[in-house]
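Following up on my earlier thread - several people asked me to post the actual chain instead of describing it. Fair enough. Here it is, all 140 residues.
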Amino acid sequence: MSQLPPKYGAPITLAQAKQIMQAAEAEAVRNQWPMVIAIVDSSGHLVLLEKMDQAQYGSVPVAQQKAQTALDFRRPTKLFEEAVSAGGLHLRLLSMSNLSALEGGLPLIANGEVVGAIGVSGMQSTQDAQVAQAGAHAFE
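Reply from S.P.:
Thanks for posting it. Predicted structure:
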């Protein structure tokens, strides 16, 4: 029997989002990765968006879509990337316009509930995920 995803909770606060953003940005700076970092609340509204100097412009909507996907489906975007990589019937995911099948989006959990999500774009997906995870760890 599969486990149900966590419930949606109250929206993340601006102070919490700033804490997450600071940790994610610090990881990106430490590695000299120009990133775009997006944080949405549990209602899907953008709380913070940061485009670091020299981050590619195309990463702005990608970071937001990764955050939105992690929120909407209450799971890391890596799971969708892995499903698409497996091929077969999983390729149906590519027809969904509201889904990013790229690693780098994570739901933000507080007291067992999804209160928001972080999405990062700018480098390879694994590097995006590393920065997103640094932000999420700061929130735990």
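Residues 14-30 form the longest helix (17 residues). That should answer part of your original question.
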